[in-house]
Design a protein that fits this description.
Order of helices and strands: EHHEEEHEH
Number of helices: 4
Number of strands: 5
CATH architecture: 3-Layer(aba) Sandwich
Distance between the termini: 43 Å
CATH class: Alpha Beta
Largest sheet: 5 strands, mixed
CATH topology: Aminopeptidase
Strand order of the largest sheet: 1-2-3-4-5
Strand content: 25-35%
Radius of gyration: 16 Å
Helix content: 25-40%
Length: about 150
């Protein structure tokens, strides 16, 4: 397994994984080619705020991904480059799950955020993935609250 930071050459593979991941949630989703073009434009406009990590096995095909969104925080005296990070859109092809690919992707994305100086890394997880994140050092926090639209 090879984990690496995604580049422009990976947009089509990332789009495919995002498209596959959204199939059940978005029954009327657009065609893959159209989505690939939109993803390319969207990612290009983010100027480094969203970084994707990808997993490959033996060939060039992507078998998994994890994104990290990097958010600048309001500066404080003596700390003008504060940063937060959020792990997003982790997905591994169903036939490749159970072999540590997702964990390796999340670890790479979280390590990237920490290297850049992120004060904390969050993730909003589905219930089944919580144990994976806990094994990687993520913990519940009483200080992290959510508000849902009414």
């Amino acid at each position: 397994m090879r984990i690496s930071e995604a580049g422009a050459d990976d947009v089509a593979g990332l789009a495919r994984l995002l498209w596959l991941n959204g199939r059940d949630e978005e029954p009327d989703q657009q065609a893959l080619d159209a989505f690939t073009a939109e993803l390319s434009e969207w990612w290009g406009a983010r100027d480094g705020s969203h970084v994707a990590y990808v997993a490959r096995l033996d060939g060039p095909e992507l078998v998994g991904m994890a994104w990290v969104a990097l958010v600048p925080r309001v500066p404080r005296p003596g700390a003008t480059n504060r940063l937060s990070a959020d792990i997003q859109s982790v997905f591994v092809l169903p036939e490749r799950r159970g072999h540590g690919i997702g964990a390796a992707l999340v670890q790479a994305a979280a390590d990237h955020a920490v290297r850049l100086g992120s004060m904390h890394v969050t993730v909003h997880s589905g219930r089944r993935a919580v144990p994976v994140y806990e094994r990687l050092g993520f913990e519940s926090s009483r200080q992290l609250l959510q508000r849902y639209p009414e």
